[in-house]
Amino acid sequence: MTLQQQRVLHFFRNSTAAGIIVGFIVFISGFFVSGITGEYLLSIGLSIMVSSMLLFGFGFFINVMEEMTKGSKGIRQYK
After folding, report:
1. Are 25 and 45 in contact (CB under 8 A)?
2. 68 Cβ partners below 8 Å, 6+ apart?
3. Rounded distance, CA 27 to CA 47, Å?
4. 27, 23, 26: which is closest to 15 by C-alpha?
5. pLDDT of 29-65, one tens digit each?
């Protein structure tokens, strides 16, 4: 794996971690808020966490596709 691919994976991993932490905080705070706002906070927190996981999945598979495309052209480096 090249240095550029590692940087991209670290970016997606860090942004996913930040999104999951923020989503979890919003989700948990939805339990302590009363009224209609609590239901909105629950759904917003859950959707932030799910979208962060999808972001990581897309970033990971883009990296995998890029590596396999280079590998099919004979550029892959084994360590």
Report:
1. yes
2. none
3. 9
4. 23
5. 888 887 777 788 889 999 999 999 999 899 888 888 8
